[in-house]
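haha ok so turns out i had the wrong file open the whole time. this is the CORRECT one, sorry everyone. sequence first:
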Amino acid sequence: MPGQTVSMEPVEPQSLKKLSFKSLKRALDLFSPVHDQFPAPDGESKKIRTSHKMHMEYGGIKSTCNQPSGQVNHVSQDQGRQASNSNLLALPGPEDSRDSQIGGVQNALVLGPSMNPKGQNEVGPVSKSTAVISSSGSSERNLSTSAIIERIPSKWPRPIWHPPWKNYRVISGHLGWVRSIAFDPSNTWFCTGSADRTIKIWDVGSGKLKLTLTGHIEQIRGLAVSSKHTYMFSAGDDKQVKCWDLEQNKVIRSYHGHLSGVYCLALHPTIDILLTGGRDSVCRVWDIRSKMQIHALSGHENTVCSVFTRPTDPQVVTGSHDTTIKFWDLRYGKTMATLTNHKKSVRAMGQHPKENAFASASADNIKKFNLPKGQFMHNMLSQQKTIINTMAVNEEGVMATGGDNGSLWFWDWKSGHNFQQAQTIVQPGSLDSEAGIYAISYDITGSRLVTCEADKTIKMWKEDQNATPESHPLNFRPPKDIRRF
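then structure:
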């Protein structure tokens, strides 16, 4: 038999806000007899809390302070004979504290059972707990204890003084952004690649144009000159890697395989191989003579935008837009290590010509690593706060970094101190936004620096011969905290 259906009253739909207010009102009605007022303070709990604080702060010296002055002096005379049990070291207080010493308690610091000095400032019975006794307030206590604080010298290395660099020559001749540079091993000429699709060769001493080479159909991003052959290598956004014979001034080999633009290029110092990295996220290893691809070093997740090589392992080091730096085993074509210290794209890397170390630059920081393990050493002590496109280091330990906003900063390699901040000046007729530095290179001697810029010029820099440590003092403050990441 079916049961009778009970008719339910319709429930009024209520919003969550209304229900919350109802619950709050119910709680106030239960626990708060008077609305909009705080409950009256409880005197007993306040008394207990104050008593506990007094005991914690002044428990160690409470018994000493409660004694009358005559008793304190009498006890001090009796205990002066027992110097072996005394744990007090008197400290010179401020001048104002001399009058207060007549009243009884003097400034004294309890050090421990091992310290047993004898002196006229030893005062009062002392427990084994360490306590500072001061008659004139906390300010005098701070002044007196600072007398024995040992100042720890900074362990950060002091930078070597370097003269500032100045611009002494501006070369114009390209019709587009100047994107790459390489020096001849004989130090008589250097070549630059540009967005006008040409490679120009310039005389180092005079800055005059010697030769213009055409052959690429896009801007030239990478250049390298061989120290063992009369070859020059170029790579560009047209996916092409070319080998130029400088005796005939023409292309004799092309290396095909990249799927997109080629952004960086490097020659191995001892073996006849060429390394190129590009937008296809792969660093390719080429045999110079046979034009064969030996390895495709794949592992990066984004554009490979910087590469350098060494004669010993890790022989290949690459930096990428995926914020990582990878060390590669050239024998097997596999990754040896991956450094994940950077948070932004690693657009530039620079190897020290003498030390087993290198620096890497990104928009967040410039970091220094050792080789071959790749252990992080330290950050440079300032932030350039721009996209750093390029960097170079010479044998004297001067590192130069070029930014997208035209800033050229010079650093001391050892300490990471930034000793000069130069700003490039665009050539007349260019926009201020074209003050960008795309490539930097020292000459073979390390005494001249050449920058390739967005205003289509090449600028040459050298050290100021008239500068002295007195005219350009070293303004260095060691860092308070050393970031270990």
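The first strand starts at residue 88 and ends at 90.
again sry for the mixup
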